[in-house]
Amino acid sequence: MSGPTRSPARNPTLADVAAAAGVSLSTASLAFSGNKPVSEETRERVLAAAGALGYAGPNPLARNLRRGRSGVVGVAVGRLSTAFRDPAALPMLDAVSEVLDAAGLGLLLMPEGDEHAGLPLDAVIYDICGSETWGAYDDLVARGVPLVVVEGPAWAGATYVDVEHRRGAAEVARHLHDLGHRRVATLTLEASHPQREREAGLRDVYPDAELVGPCASDLVAAQRMVGAWWDGGGEASAVVCQSDVQAAGVVLEARRRGLDVPGDLSVAGFDGVATPWLDLELTTVVQPLAEKGRATARAALSRIAGEPVDDVLLPVRMRVGGSTGPASHAT
């Protein structure tokens, strides 16, 4: 078979084989496992692509483990570097690990891509990736791997764990409205379910709020984004951010420009994480990060045991801090 050759940069994966053979990841997986019928023509095409790429097939131990339990739960976290820098992600991952460890299960962090999804996993938690699509989803469904999705897309067959994004954002918006703020901007996250719900909550009170972003939940990125907005003539008496890290960045950039927070500008966030780089406490929506992790892990354990599991929606609360105050003038 001519065409694909093995890349010297890394070992080939089942995803590479599927792409070379022109089939889905789940079809390639089934061609190797033999668990479900795949046409002989398709099987031969997959095996030929595997041979050309130098892919020897699934590990025999992994194949044996799939028949029972591996004792490992995968957590898809997107970019590992981002996951470990996000103060909203760490308490949740810690709580997930605590519950799974108590149940005698290990945890495998799965970075971007789907090459790890073919491993023998008892369940998979789709956590903080942010993406609304995942190439491994079809393969996981085909193999019957239990899936728990956190604040993400409502995929068929998955258990869903979420928080009250919209209600919390609306509560912060009403707080600012009561303080006399009429011209409000919002610094948004990249497109995702939390981003849409938090924006919707703000627009319940401020339908004409100016959109700034999208912006990652990153201190420097938020400073640059809001700075560019101000340089372009942006004006508001309050900026509502969709994460506390963003809000901290806005506060720092405002101060760099000589603006007083909250005297000249009110700033609010979302998550309720510690912001030790600031000398004031943010007004924010506090979400139960550790409880979200525990609920997620408990849902995964129930799914592994074959028990019915309801979706989970956790409450949030607003915390008024020193970053918001009365509008200096109504606009």
UniProtKB/TrEMBL annotation:
Residues 12-67 form the HTH lacI-type domain. Transmembrane segments: none annotated. Pfam families: LacI, Peripla_BP_3. Keywords: DNA-binding, Transcription, Transcription regulation. The keyword DNA-binding applies. InterPro entries: HTH_LacI (IPR000843), LacI/GalR-like_sensor (IPR046335), Lambda_DNA-bd_dom_sf (IPR010982), Peripla_BP_I (IPR028082). The keyword Lipoprotein does not apply. SMART domains: HTH_LACI. This is Substrate-binding domain-containing protein.
